[in-house]
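To: structure subgroup
Subject: Chain for Friday's discussion

All,

I'm putting the inputs and outputs inline so they're searchable in the archive.
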Amino acid sequence: MRPALGFLLTAALFMSGCEAPITEPEETEPTGEKALLAAWDTPFGTPPFDAFKSENYLPALREGMARHQAEIKAITADTEAPTFANTIEELERSGRSLDQVQNVFSAINGANSDEVTRETATEIAPELSAHADDIFLNKDLFVRIKAVHEQREDLDLTPEQMRLLEETYKDFVRAGANLDEPAQDRLRELNGELATLSEQFRNNLLEETNEFELLVTQRADLGNLPPSLVAVAAEEARRRGHECECWVFTLSRPSINPFLEYSPNREMRRKIFTGYAMRGDNGNDADNNDILAREVALRAERAVLLGYESHAHYVLADAMAGTPAQVYELLDQVWGAALAAAGKERDALQAMMREEGLEGSLEGADWRHYTEKVRKARFDLDQDALRPYFEVTAVRDGAFAVATKLFGLTFTPRDDLATWHPDQEVFEVKDADGSHLGILYMDFFARESKRGGAWMNALRSQEKMDGDVTAIVTTNFNFPPPTADSPSLLSFSEAETLFHEFGHALHGMFSDVVYPSLSGTRTPRDYVEFPSQVMENWMSEPEVLKMFARHYETGEVIPQDMVDKITASSRFNQGFITVEYMAAAYLDMKYHTQIPPAELVPHRFEKEVLGQLELIPEILSRYRSTYFQHIFAGGYAAGYYGYLWSEVLDADAFQAFKETSLFDQKTAQAFREHILSTGGTRPGLELYKAFRGREPDIKALLGRRGLLAVAD
């Protein structure tokens, strides 16, 4: 079982984290659901993806739940007095069959889904929710946990054991173990309905995203779109059955963002921008308004039932921030300066429009288009000219090279290991001493079967309960796929995304803890992004760019003048980037600090919140409510602020390297020891102070984003 996940077990189905596989013997080369539940006789215990079929997951998940319940029953039936070993540690060992299936299914359904897996996810979500409730509301089990907790000071536990005990007890209490029976019955109803609504939201968003297309038949409407992306759009048109010289653009970010940047056709920019902004908000069968309103109401009711003022108070009580007031304090420290910077940026873009002879006001669909024009005029930097230096495998190798210089890691391709899609790559990762550290899967390219964004999953978490178990992790992206004539060439921000997810992977693989519930990325939501965001810093450093950024055709190292332009423009458009993100973070917090509302109308609520913030109309919140998957189908409810919270940590932490050198070995080892290897064994701030020697300073973040002078 994974007590640190509490009754959010179902949400974790689509996030990182898993336990070690079961070890009981099975028949030789089992197939179907038996293969999912078996001990995998494969190199490093990697999943034999080629042995699984979509229809296998539902029966395997149900069998995993049945096994888990039997293991819980064995704990509660023990006639011996409750001890740390026979209760807490046995709880840790329980549920491994379920976790094994769950983590494979989570990865597949997120990155290579089909109709069967999506139907399975919808059907199994309330069952998993009920299963979690059956455990966390098991009175006999909680009696044993509580008995161990009450004698904790006399047990001579290690610090990690004490942390596990405290977290386990806390999670049971937070999951409703102390409620009376009628309240627990209502809690079960709330959890089950929320699990179903989350799946409906996710499926609606995928449907809306996949169905939209912008068909372009005139080459002039592409503007100076990079040739590699022109080829991708032409291939998409052919794939969708258009027999013409034409191009199709979709709502995936690698498609829509370049079109908005390069197309001179304002009406077409409006059309695709509106298509993106209206996802889940079209009054059709895939509309998400009623779903999200119901989720907000149920979460608020559940929080009150559990003794909290709001859902945000419930979530944040188990986070670094602690309270909504602390979150708002952070957001408010940044918002004013960011909004002022965004206003100045808006004025510059409007002026560029006027220089071109266009009347009227700048619109949201114009922002990216004129941003690139102003960038080029102000810094002589053409983003198009950067792409040939950021071929996807070169960027991947750049991330590997940074990890090698910092930590001595090596990465060996393993073409013999099964994958869930032909595009996937697999690497064995070895530590500086040559020992096996983990397995890394990388799935780079966008496709209809993959949800949007980028993320990391753990197919197996590191642990040492019953022997050394190493991590198996995946990183998933939505980069433009290669074509017959061109490899996948990334934008600068896409290259940063690769380093970001690689940072999550390092966090998972470097984990060096005993208990799986405390392993790797199983940390508070507002801490987990910190180790990944730190890695982004190296990508843009001139010294590192020279290591990997080479022209994919000529092999030429990125020219110094281009590096200088990248550095000079690093703070450009930061007002927009900050405000766009923060508007969504505020919206999340406002939804989840609601007292149970009698009626919530998302359109009106969203408009009111953004109006109170005085968000300038030319900027759209990064996520409007109806496609805000992070908070309505992704486990970030009342936690989206965490990226900014983590950035305060990462900006300040990277200064430790800047104060010495980018690859200072003493600093790197301290970062590994105190941050990357510790998982959730200690509170986040305590870990940070152990590394840095003090609390983080927000000035590093404001300085990086060019907001320090504005804030002062």
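Points worth raising on Friday:
The CA atoms of residues 327 and 592 lie 12 Å apart.
The chain is about 55% helix and 5% strand.

D.
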